[in-house]
Amino acid sequence: MHVLITGGAGFIGSHLADLYLFQGEKVTIIDDLSTGSLSNIEHLRVHKNFHFAIETIMNETVMDRLISECDVIFHLAAAVGVELIINHQVQAIETNINGTDMVLRIANRYKKKTLIASTSEVYGKAEKFPFSETDDSVFGPTINSRWSYACSKAIDEFLALAYYKEKKLPVVITRLFNTVGPRQTGQYGMVIPRFVNQALKNEPITVYGDGQQSRCFCHVKEVCQAFSLLMENPEVEGEVVNIGSDQEITILDLAKKIKSLTGSLSEIRIIPYDQAYAKGFEDMNRRLPDISKAHRLIGYEPKISLDQILEDVISYCKQQLSA
Ligand code: UDP
Q1: Residue 149 among the catalytic residues
Q2: Which residue owns the Cα nearest ligand 1 atom 16?
Q3: Nearest Cα residue to 249 out of 236, 239, 258, 238
Q4: Quick one: which atom of ligand 1 is closest to the CA of 284?
Q5: Is residue 154 packed enough to be buried (19+ CB in 10 Å), middle (13-18) or exposed (0-12)?
Q6: pLDDT-derived band of residue 87, with 50, 70 and 90 as boundaries?
Q7: Within a 10 A sphere around the Cβ of 247, how many other Cβ atoms?
Q8: C-alpha 105 – ligand 1 centre gap (Å)
Q9: What does the buried/exposed string (b/e) look like for 252-289 if buried means 16 or more CB atoms within 10 Å of the residue's CB?
């Protein structure tokens, strides 16, 4: 099988490339390195089954060739990270909507099965927990630009489902809940690499809000395994599936855990939201997935504990800091 991964030099994309190459498949990635990095794929460049294009997915000629040559597509190229999205809104909206439009349009030309990586942000500020795939999305007003990310990803989902229903393009939509692990950067706001790097440098660990907001963190390896099982299963075509862990932790407890696991001297510093983000920013208080659908479809059951995840990230960050 020949797998095409858009955003393949990114955090999740590079782990997915690892998985397929390990299984003996051929992998091509396309990445414009806007948030991905060559260091994520450095170890793959010698692999005979690995090919890469440093190019934007908006280049139709290149995309047409890559899609015509592959068997399946994982569309992971997107604007990611709350801070990046808030600071570069036009770019984020355009990348998410126009990029997905490009991928689906060409995928449909060659009828190539496509998995779209969506996000739990699509649930917005819904307050019914856990979030299950048929629940309503609840967004704030358009004047508050933080909702543009959720809306742009919701449009991606609508478009993919429309291709499935109207044009019989096989698609799979995954909604990811805080995927973490080695190679994730804290540069765009992601909390675990942020806290780990702060702790390792004995700098203040910056907890936003009151720290009582909670998240569930899932190891990237388990997310990639789920992607591959979802892609294989014909029953999943035209479906939206939550992928993540359902073990919750508050951000304050996460900071304490990271401080203790690293033996850090860092203080834990509480920073009000209006100092951390632009005025009017609304954080999600909880983000808890119902993962029963993934369990039913592919036997999905995340097993890697938060402590194991953190050990993995800590050793990666230590290596990076000493390099
Ligand atoms: N967060 C924090 N300090 C940081 C970065 C993030 O307290 O330096 C918080 C953030 O406000 C949110 C949680 O950690 O409540 C998870 O943030 P992340 O950006 O990793 O993911 P998301 O908000 O998309 O769940």
Answers
A1: yes
A2: 191
A3: 258
A4: 15
A5: buried
A6: confident
A7: 13
A8: 34
A9: bebbebbbeebebebebeeeebeebbeeebeebebbbb
The residue contributing the CA closest to ligand 1 atom 1 is 191
Global pTM value: 0.97
Q: Whose CA is nearest to atom 14 of ligand 1?
A: 191
**Ligand 1 binding pocket includes 283 (Cβ within 6 Å):** yes
Decide if 125 contacts 107 (C-beta within 8 A).
no
Length of the chain: 323
Separation of alpha carbons 263 and 17, rounded Å: 34
Q: What is the dotted CATH code of the domain comprising 2-179+217-244+286-302?
A: 3.40.50.720
190 lines ligand 1 (CB under 6 A): yes
Domain positions in the chain: 2-179+217-244+286-302
Between the CA of 94 and the centroid of ligand 1 the distance, in Å, is: 23
pLDDT of residue 166: 98
Q: Which of 149, 164, 208, 300 is catalytic?
A: 149
Q: Give the whole-angstrom CA distance, residue 202 versus residue 268.
A: 10
Give the C-alpha separation, 191 to 96, whole Å: 22
Q: Say what the pLDDT of residue 82 is.
A: 72
- Residue 5: which pLDDT band, with cuts at 50, 70 and 90? very high
Q: In angstroms, rounded to a whole number, what is the distance separating the alpha carbons of residues 233 and 108?
A: 19
